[in-house]
Amino acid sequence: MSAYIDHLSKDSRLRKVLADQDAVSLSRHKNIPLRLCASIMSQQLSTKVAKVIFHRFLSLYGGDEPTPEQIAATPPETLRGIGLSNAKAQYVLNVAQFCMAHKLTDAKLKKMTDEEIIDLLIEIKGVGRWTVEMLLMFTLGREDVFAVDDYGIQVAMKNIYKLDDSNKKEFKAAMQKIATKWSPYRTYACLHLWQWKDTE
């Protein structure tokens, strides 16, 4: 735990953020295809609403975690009935079908690098880089992921590092340059930046 704090504290501005917060830890979860479906369901929703919809989703399968085969066999109108948009319902089915076609298992994904997982999963319609980055952080517990496209991270870094965001390309390049120094603990930096944004 202290290893990441010691490393990130070399950045004087981030050190001030860390000083006001408790250390964080990463957890790993099973059934990665299901977690990817959950990430899609939660896009552009508050955490509270996303939890309600995910609970309804599990209820379709008797409260148990469904397999990709069970999800793929679910009619789109059933998914729309729990509050998913037409697009999200189709994206969830896309994930299930992709996982079946590629025989994706937790064991297979755990052996892959972050970039290999991103390159593979963004082939699925409805899954972008940000969605996979959230999966890497919160399901696979990968320590060195930097979500440059995340709005919360952008707001935090703009304020903490006094960055100019008028040119998005230059702004993201500046973010990436700063974050390079945080490697191999960029996920932890993101967790603390989100926390900072939520308390400011």
SSE layout:
Elements: H1 2-8, H2 12-19, H3 32-42, H4 47-59, H5 68-72, H6 76-80, H7 86-101, H8 106-110, H9 114-121, H10 129-138, H11 151-160, H12 168-180, H13 186-199
Helix pairs in contact: 3-7, 3-10, 9-10, 11-13
Give the integer mean of the pLDDT values: 95
Structural class: mainly alpha
The amount of beta strand, in percent, is: under 5%
What is the string of SSEs from the N terminus onward?
Answer: HHHHHHHHHHHHH
* General form: elongated
Which architecture of the largest domain does the CATH hierarchy give at level 2?
Answer: Orthogonal Bundle
Distance between the termini: 25 Å
Q: Which fold does the CATH topology of the largest domain refer to? A: Endonuclease III, domain 1
What oligomeric assembly is this protein in?
Answer: single chain
Give the fraction of residues assigned to helices. 55-70%
Please describe what this structure looks like.
There is one protein chain. By secondary structure, the chain is an all-alpha fold. It folds into 2 domains: 2-26 and 146-199, Endonuclease Iii, domain 2, CATH 1.10.1670; 32-138, Orthogonal Bundle (Endonuclease III, domain 1), CATH 1.10.340. Helices cover 62% and strands 0% of the residues. The chain is built from 13 helices and no strands. The chain has helices spanning 2-8, 12-19, 32-42, 47-59, 68-72, 76-80, 86-101, 106-110, 114-121, 129-138, 151-160, 168-180, 186-199. The longest helix has 16 residues, at 86-101.
